[in-house]
Amino acid sequence: xxxxxxxxxxxxxxxxxxxxxxxxDNRASxxxxxxxxxxxxxxxxxxxxxxxxxxxxxxxxxxxxxxxxFGNLQxxxxxxxxxxxxxxxxxxxxxxxxxxxxxxxxxxxxxxxxFIASFGIGEAPLYRQATFSxxxxxxxxxxxxxxxxxxxxxxxxxRAENWYKEELFARFKPIVTFGTIKGKDPLGDRTNxxxx
Length: 196
Prior knowledge:
The chain is of the alpha+beta class. It contains five helices and seven strands; from the N terminus they run ββααββαββααβ.
């Protein structure tokens, strides 16, 4: 998938940063892909830097291309860092409303308690967008998503005005990270919590 600039999705893509999101049955399947696939070879040949994070799904609702890629999970218990994926296919007649609110929500998120990092990714420019974000803990995610007035208002508008043709929200427990992005691992020393 393509990537937006400055950690959010953007109408102007970052042509030097790309994302791959994949679901594996097990760690062995991932390792085979990571070390032996043509895609891995291609990426390693052209890239300057690569960061990988393996995650275990905790919660997921909604669909991506009509499928539930992570299952329909509802696990609340997690200590330590949490990753969040929000993805939507935006109705073409709602693009203006959506994009008019992107910067405000991004600014709010980047200053929220517990926020670590975010990446805007998408399969198609303008209307198929996702945000992958990292947080110190689940309570920080809930506070930002549901208890901040500004973000709550945007959520209400998306539902009342039917902005999305399809949407998916998922939370994950980070399992392991390796490599860097922009010179560092976004989870930094926090990887000691789950890298053992």
